Amino acid sequence: MISHSHKFILILPAKTASTTITSALLPYVNISTIKIQKDLNTFDFFEKSEDYISTGTVKPRKHALLSSYHELHLKSYKLFCTIRNPFDRACSAWRWKSKRSKIKFKEYIVNMDMNHHINQTQLSYVDHHSIKLSDIYFIKYENIQEDFNMACNKIGIPRKELPHENKSNHKHYTEYYNDETLQIVAEKYAKDIEYFDYKFGE
């Protein structure tokens, strides 16, 4: 999502509290249409096509990649990205999928489609030939309110207590894993785990 009034771009990998963050920032961003998904208790949004490099079929852009935006904006706007422990995020993706199917956790992990936006690595969302990772401020799901407050300070908007969107009752993510699924996720998200210094059980 992009804000021209406050000059920032926020990248929202799926299952990283993107609905919560988006809800808080709606007054400041360049959104033209919101698409409510009542069955999933969430929403997607459309931004103006001129804000994107890519052309063609218009799709919701809640989970747009950093490379989707014009380089002029990337160089002059503040850049943010939400992130989450990959072990927790993979479990959250399965719970999202299981709302529409009866797929078991192990089956989901074993057959995970890494090309689908909900499973893509978080680093892939911010991969760009001219932007360094050190130029991006990361908002950790595990420290979301404090990191969001710092982001508000950086872009010059009032701090706001974040609601907990998409809250659901479930066990701690570690209880869904066995040795096999733990190894699969560790391998698929190895770069995310290493760069963001995540560990299983945090």
Helix content: 25-40%
**If you compute it from the alpha carbons, what radius of gyration comes out, rounded to the nearest whole angstrom?**
17 Å
Largest sheet, in brief, is: 4 strands, mixed
Strand content: 5-15%
- Low-confidence parts: none
Question: By helix and strand content, what is the structural category?
Answer: alpha/beta
What is the total tally of β strands?
6
Summarize the structure.
With 202 residues, this protein is α/β, with parallel strands linked by helices.
Give an account of the 3D structure:
- The longest helix has 13 residues, at 86-98.
- The model has no long low-confidence stretch (mean pLDDT 88).
- The chain is an alpha/beta fold and 202 residues long.
- It is 32% helix and 15% strand.
- It is built from eight helices and six strands, in the order E-E-H-E-E-H-E-H-H-H-E-H-H-H.
- It has helices at residues 18-25, 71-76, 86-98, 105-110, 122-125, 144-155, 179-188, 190-195; strands at residues 2-3, 8-11, 31-37, 42-47, 78-83, 136-140.
- It has one domain.
- The two termini are 29 Å apart.
- The strands form two sheets. The protein has a four-stranded mixed beta sheet with strand order 1-2-5-6. Strands 3-4 form a two-stranded antiparallel sheet.
